[in-house]
Write a structure and sequence with these properties.
It is a single chain. With about 375 residues, the chain is mainly α. The protein has 14 helices and 4 strands. Helix 3 packs parallel to helix 6, helix 3 runs parallel beside helix 14 and helix 10 packs parallel to helix 12. The longest helix is centred in the C-terminal third of the chain and has 19 residues. The relative contact order is 0.12.
Length: about 375
């Protein structure tokens, strides 16, 4: 029998260990503390990049800074302020609102466009901290003008559900007026059941078509329906933000809870092995790859649902943790910028390519979704 010398034993050991994959940072669990640190990093990166809260946003054209993309960022910032009470964060939101005189995009108060009403969500949240009537005068006037008509078909694209529904819900909560809840429900049901050919929600799959352009026979290259990740993310976000406002016995609450459950069930089935979701939920080969905005919105919905006891902890906490782990370890740059953010659009091909290093036309809504997801994940991680 031949004896192995020490050098041979060491070489053999190194060979064996080289075949065993080391646990990477992407695989190790993210903690609540690390989550808070990365949220601060990402938010401070953005505030440093946009020190003037009123600065116009210039891409292909110049736009006011209270458009929907920036409003979604401030939605996330207002929730993050509940975890991190740095006065600079709240001051940043107040300066933004004051610059715009608490009015809607380009001073157009009487718009019916939900995108342009989205800023009202933040105005109402700021009003609750310091209830001065001027803070919600314009958003209330905008919504009240809609309620004086019988028109309920404004939300013809599912993004509008997130931009508009929570505004109605927040006004209903502030004024203890169920009329806002009822009109919100009428508009939501029209979008769900009547827009497009037979409504934009597919009961069979538990997912939403983005708008009437994507009803069957429209199909992805693999022959399946087109379910855009971020579009479905907007609906998940809306369900959470509306449920946070409705009283426990509030009108139609059960309906929104059931929608959140159906969507999360459908989404859990198509989560990528790496934790992200693809841009096209049912066709991973069509502009497949990691995408941060839809992923963050789904994390937000799942984590909130678990924290509220609405969703099964056993089933959905692992999915939320896996996705949050991926966002923290794979999407956040060392300077705080977010990678894998799809630019604006309405379908998988929009805003491509989506990579770690690609810079979308707007970075703000991606950060808003990330902060919303992070606040709920921080609470979830702190329960263990």
């Amino acid at each position: 029998m031949h004896r192995l010398n020490l050098r041979q034993i060491l070489l053999a050991s190194l060979t064996i260990w080289s075949l065993i994959p080391a646990q990477s940072d992407a695989q190790s669990p993210v903690t609540a503390g690390e989550s808070l640190e990365k949220m601060r990093l990402a938010n401070n990166y953005f505030m440093d990049k946009w020190p003037d809260a009123g600065q116009r946003i210039v891409t292909n054209i110049s736009r006011a800074s209270n458009i929907w993309t920036r409003a979604v960022y401030y939605e996330g910032l207002m929730e993050f302020c509940k975890l991190d009470e740095d006065p600079a964060y709240l001051d940043y939101a107040v300066k933004w609102a004051e610059f715009h005189d608490w009015n809607l995009r380009d001073g157009q108060t009487y718009t019916r466009n939900a995108d342009n009403q989205c800023a009202g969500q933040v105005y109402i949240d700021l009003y609750r901290l310091d209830p001065k009537p001027e803070k919600i005068r314009y958003i209330k006037a905008s919504i009240d003008s809609m309620m004086r008509t019988g028109k309920i078909d404004d939300w013809s694209w599912i993004d509008a559900i997130q931009m508009g529904m929570p505004v109605f819900a927040k006004l209903g909560a502030v004024y203890h007026d169920n009329a806002y809840f009822e009109r919100m429900h009428e508009m939501y049901r029209f979008t769900r059941d009547q827009h497009g050919d037979h409504g934009l929600f597919n009961k069979k799959t538990g997912l939403w078509w983005r708008d009437g352009d994507f009803d069957p026979p429209y199909a992805e290259p693999n022959g399946k329906d087109c379910y855009w990740s971020r579009g479905n993310g907007w609906v998940v976000m809306a369900m959470v933000r509306v449920l946070e406002e409705l009283p426990k016995n509030g009108p139609h609450r059960k309906e929104y809870v059931n929608m959140l459950k159906k969507m999360c069930k459908a989404l859990a089935r198509v989560q990528r092995p790496d934790g992200f979701w693809n841009v096209s939920l049912h066709d991973p080969g069509h502009f497949g790859g990691r995408e941060a905005t839809g992923t963050a919105m789904f994390v937000y919905g799942m984590a909130w649902g678990v924290n509220q006891g609405i969703l099964s902890r056993k089933k959905y906490e692992p999915a939320a943790r896996k996705a949050w782990n991926a966002l923290i370890r794979e999407a956040v740059h060392p300077d705080g910028a977010l990678g894998y953010v799809q630019g604006t659009g309405k379908e998988p091909s929009a805003g491509q390519p989506v990579t770690y290093d690609s810079v979308p036309d707007f970075e703000d809504y991606g950060l808003g979704a990330f902060l919303l997801a992070g606040t709920e994940m921080y609470r979830l991680l702190n329960t263990r």
